[in-house]
Amino acid sequence: MTGSEEKLNRYLAIDYGLKRIGLALSDPLITFSYPFKTIPNDSNSIRELKKIIDEQGIVKIILGFPKKESGEPASISGKVIVFKEKLEKEFRLEILFRDERYTSSLASEIITMSVSKKSKRKEKGLIDMGAAAIILQNYLDEKKYSVSP
């Protein structure tokens, strides 16, 4: 980045999984989201997230919170809470939970309709970052359409 370029602020959405972490970004105007990338959930994931947060000018993180259809926390929810605590300690950014029910199945449907190559559609990473984009877009839409007093 050159000195004349202004650092843009973005939001980052995370779809946490035991094997992979799907990521999505907002545009600099914080209006829409798009799938960004998938990273392995391993000992390097925090380091990789730090790099992305620094490079992309992340000011807020929206973290998908897994729930059962009934609304109760899913079995992986405890791990997501621990992950959120790790992120808060490491990055000192606002991190908000968002319900992620149905985001993976919706992302899968979108991929089925928009990706023509059948072998490409089976890439789980596409679903993970697509789910993150849906989580973030839902958050942005709620913010945009909520009525402020």
Write the layout of secondary structure elements.
Blueprint: E1 10-16, E2 20-26, E3 33-40, H1 45-56, E4 58-65, H2 77-91, E5 94-99, H3 103-114, H4 118-121, H5 124-145
Separation of the first and last Cα atoms = 39 Å
Number of domains: 1
Unreliable segments of 5+ consecutive residues? 1-5
Instruction: Give the total of beta strands.
Output: 5
- Order of strands across the biggest sheet? 3-2-1-4-5
CATH topology: the name is Nucleotidyltransferase, domain 5
Helical fraction: 40-55%
Number of helices: 5
Give the CA-based shape.
globular
Give the strand content: 15-25%
CATH class: Alpha Beta
State the secondary-structure class: alpha/beta
Which CATH architecture would you pick? 2-Layer Sandwich
Spell the H/E element sequence: EEEHEHEHHH
Structural write-up:
- With 149 residues, the chain is an alpha/beta fold.
- The chain has one domain: YqgF/RNase H-like domain (Nucleotidyltransferase, domain 5), CATH 3.30.420.140.
- The chain contains five helices and five strands; from the N terminus they run βββαβαβααα.
- It has a five-stranded mixed sheet with strand order 3-2-1-4-5, sandwiched between helices.
- Helix 2 links the parallel strand 4 and strand 5.
- The radius of gyration is 15 Å and the shape is globular.
- The N terminus is likely disordered.
